[in-house]
UniProtKB/TrEMBL annotation:
It comes from the Bacteria. It is a multi-pass membrane protein. Belongs to the ThrE exporter (TC 2.A.79) family. InterPro entries: ThrE-like_N, ThrE_Dicarb/AminoAcid_Exp. Keywords: Cell membrane, Membrane, Transmembrane, Transmembrane helix. This is Threonine/serine exporter-like N-terminal domain-containing protein. The keyword Iron-sulfur does not apply. GO terms for biological process: succinate transport. Residues 1-235 form the Threonine/serine exporter-like N-terminal domain. It comes from Weissella minor. One of its GO terms (cellular component) is plasma membrane. GO terms for molecular function: transmembrane transporter activity. The keyword RNA-binding does not apply.
Length: 237
C-alpha cells in the first residue's frame, strides 16, 4: 500500500500470507482501504473464542513498482514455505527501509520520455532536446523536494513554475515557436500515470472508496502542475 499497489493485490497478498501461516485452520478475512488494513482471525473449532482483530494504518508514500515486485516475490516464497514467518518479517522490514529509487535512472528516463514525445509532436530536434533537458531537471527537483518536505503536490507546483520560467527566459535569447510543446513535454514524466491506472483498476474491482480517492488525488496532482505554469503565464505577460 505504501508503494502504490492496487487494493486487490494487497488483499490477496494479506490473505495468502495469513492462510499459509494458519495452514488453513483458521477463518481469516481482510478488509483493505487506501489508508487502513483490518485483519480478523477466528478459530471455527472454538466457538467461545473471540475473533482476533489486527488494525494497521498506513498510506501511499510513493509509487515504487520495484518494491511492489519484491514484496510479491517474498510473499510467494513464504507461501511456498521457502521462508519462515520471522524471516519474511525481517526481509519486509529491511525492504521498507531501502530506497530502491535510482535518481540517475529516473532523470535519464525523464529525458528520454520528454524528448521522444516532444519530437513526435513537433518534429524538431531543438525542441526535443530542450524538453528532455527540462524534463530531466524537473524530475530531479521533484525527487529532492519530496525527500526533504515529504508532502505531495508542492514539488510538482514549484517545478512546473520553474520549468515555465526557464522556457520563457530562453525565449528571450532563442525564438521558440513551439514553446508550449516544450513545457508540456518537460512536465509529462511528472504526470501520475501509474496512480491513474491503479485508481481505475480499483474502481473496476468494486473498491468505490479507494478508487475515486486515488483518482481525485491524480487529478489534483495534474491540476497542480497546470496551476504552476498558469501562475507564471499570469504574472509574466
Amino acid at each position: 500500500m505504501e508503494n502504490g499497489s492496487e487494493l486487490s493485490r494487497i488483499d490477496s497478498t494479506v490473505k495468502y500470507i495469513s492462510n499459509t501461516y494458519s495452514e488453513g485452520n483458521d477463518d481469516i478475512d481482510a478488509y483493505v482501504t487506501s489508508t487502513l488494513i483490518i485483519i480478523t482471525a477466528n478459530d471455527p473449532m472454538d466457538t467461545d473464542m473471540q475473533p482476533l482483530v489486527l488494525v494497521e494504518k498506513t498510506s501511499v508514500k510513493s509509487i515504487n513498482l520495484t518494491k511492489i515486485d519484491e514484496i510479491n516475490r517474498l510473499s510467494r516464497a513464504f507461501v511456498a514455505h521457502e521462508l519462515t514467518l520471522p524471516e519474511l518479517y525481517r526481509a519486509l522490514q529491511q525492504l521498507r527501509k531501502q530506497n530502491l529509487l535510482s535518481v540517475p535512472k529516473a532523470t535519464a528516463g525523464s529525458f528520454l520520455l520528454s524528448s521522444t514525445l516532444t519530437y513526435l509532436g513537433t518534429q524538431n530536434l531543438l525542441n526535443s532536446f530542450l524538453a528532455g533537458l527540462f524534463g530531466m531537471m524537473g524530475m530531479y527537483l521533484v525527487l529532492r523536494i519530496y525527500k526533504y518536505l515529504h508532502r505531495p503536490f508542492i514539488g510538482e507546483l514549484v517545478v512546473s513554475a520553474i520549468i515555465t520560467i526557464c522556457v520563457r527566459l530562453l525565449m528571450l535569447m532563442i525564438p521558440l515557436s513551439d514553446y508550449n510543446a516544450i513545457i508540456i513535454g518537460a512536465l509529462f514524466p511528472l504526470l501520475p500515470g501509474v496512480q491513474l491506472t491503479t485508481s481505475i483498476n480499483d474502481i473496476f474491482d468494486g473498491n468505490l472508496i479507494s478508487g475515486p480517492q486515488r483518482l481525485l488525488s491524480a487529478m489534483i496532482l495534474t491540476l497542480t502542475m497546470v496551476l504552476g505554469s498558469l501562475l507564471v503565464y499570469t504574472i509574466w505577460r
